[in-house]
Amino acid sequence: MTADRPTPDAPLKIGTRGSPLALAQAHETRDRLARAFDLDPAAFEVVVIKTTGDIVLDRPLKEIGGKGLFTKEIEEAMLSGAIDLAVHSMKDMPVEQPAGLVLDTYLPREDPRDAFVSREVSAIAELPQGATVGSSSLRRRAQLAARRPDLNLVEFRGNVQTRMRKLDDGVALATFLAMAGLNRLGMAEVAKGAIDTEEMLPAVAQGAIGIERRADDHRVAAMLEAIHDADTALQLAAERAFLAALDGSCETPIAGLARLEGGTLTLRGEILRPDGSDVLDDKAEAPAEDGAALGREMGLRLLERGGPGFFDWRG
Ligand SMILES: NCc1[nH]cc(CCC(=O)O)c1CC(=O)O
Questions:
Q1: Which of 43, 98, 148, 170 has the fewest CB atoms within 10 Å distance of its CB?
Q2: Distance, CA 211 to ligand 1 centroid (Å)?
Q3: Catalytic residue positions?
Q4: Cα 94-100-103 angle, rounded to 5 deg
Q5: Distance from C-alpha of 32 to C-alpha of 71, rounded to nearest angstrom
Q6: Distance 63 CA to ligand 1 centre (A)
Q7: In whole numbers, what is the pLDDT of the chain averaged over residues?
Q8: Is the pTM of this model over 0.90?
């Protein structure tokens, strides 16, 4: 490591999307690396890369379709050597990476819960009959439709400011965001509160940041070891195996959250029909090192229980 430490003249290039949250996540990664190796932050260069998901803003993501909407261009930049590592919200990451790339470094996970965001109302239970709420997330829409079929759901995308403006314009009475994103942006005050995971189970990997690298880049691999969070990795092994068994992505109505306590992983999983007319859930535990089997078996169990037809919505 000491032989080829990055320097301001030969910086390590950190690729990221340009959204405020993506930039905050890239800066967190840079600061953790700089601290771990006692390096000048100028020994890192944050390189902003536009992805399809950033360019197409007028349609719900599920309509644009395809996996890796926020990752393809970044992964190409890494394979070509234009950047050395890439910082991602693990919630948005496909369960498999392109050949030549590895994604196995995680920063300590932020709050995995969803946030209830409204100017006027304090919680889901306080929403009046028939209230309009905004969300473009298939999972959140299905969960809301299941618990509150009276609500009127409208599409809602954009960064936090855009969404708050829509609330002020009366487009909806409330919306939902990840607590993790709000915390990392220092904007938690727009949330009325975090939603209990018994009420709304979060997306797989919500709140976790992953760092991707070239498989043959041993210098970067050695550096990333210093900032890796092993507990987050154990949780994500279970959650992502669950998602993989269902062949899902962040744009399918699937929820899953693992908790780690005293060497035991407890995984909760949920699959829904998009209209909320059917919800299947499961909970199971296993030793911490068996997360992948725990997740995979739960996914297969739910597939079996759902039967053919349950996944008609799957593309
Ligand atoms: N799909 C968009 C996305 N991807 C990651 C986050 C938030 C940060 C995180 O969950 O790690 C968000 C926005 C949101 O759901 O509020």
A1: 170
A2: 16
A3: 92
A4: 45
A5: 22
A6: 18
A7: 93
A8: yes
Q: How far apart are the first and last CA of the chain?
A: 45
Q: Whose CA is nearest to atom 8 of ligand 1?
A: 181
Q: Report how far ligand 1's centroid is from the alpha carbon of 178 (Å).
A: 6
Residue 85, sorted as left (phi over 0), alpha (psi -120 to 50) or beta, turns out to be beta
Q: Tell me which residue has tokens 């507990």.
A: 231
**With 70 as the cut, is the pLDDT of residue 70 above it?**
yes
The pLDDT of residue 44 is above 80: yes
Task: Determine the Cα–Cα distance for residues 144 and 124; give it in Å rounded to an integer.
Answer: 9
Nearest to 274 by CA among 307, 312, 226: 312
ipTM rounded to 2 decimals: 0.93
d(CA 150, CA 132): 9
- With H, G, I as helix, E, B as strand and everything else as coil, classify residue 182: helix
- What are the tens digits of pLDDT across the range 247-278? 865 457 999 999 999 999 999 999 999 999 99
Span 192-204, average pLDDT = 97
Nearest ligand 1 atom to the CA of 203 is 10
Residue nearest to atom 9 of ligand 1 (CA): 207
Question: Fold match between 2-109+208-228 and 239-305?
Answer: no
Domain 239-305 has CATH 3.30.160.40: yes
Rounded-to-integer distance, Cα 241 and Cα 307, Å? 20
Task: Please provide the CATH number assigned to the domain covering 114-194.
Answer: 3.40.190.10
3-state secondary structure of 286: strand
- pLDDT tens across 89-107, in order? 999 898 899 999 999 999 9
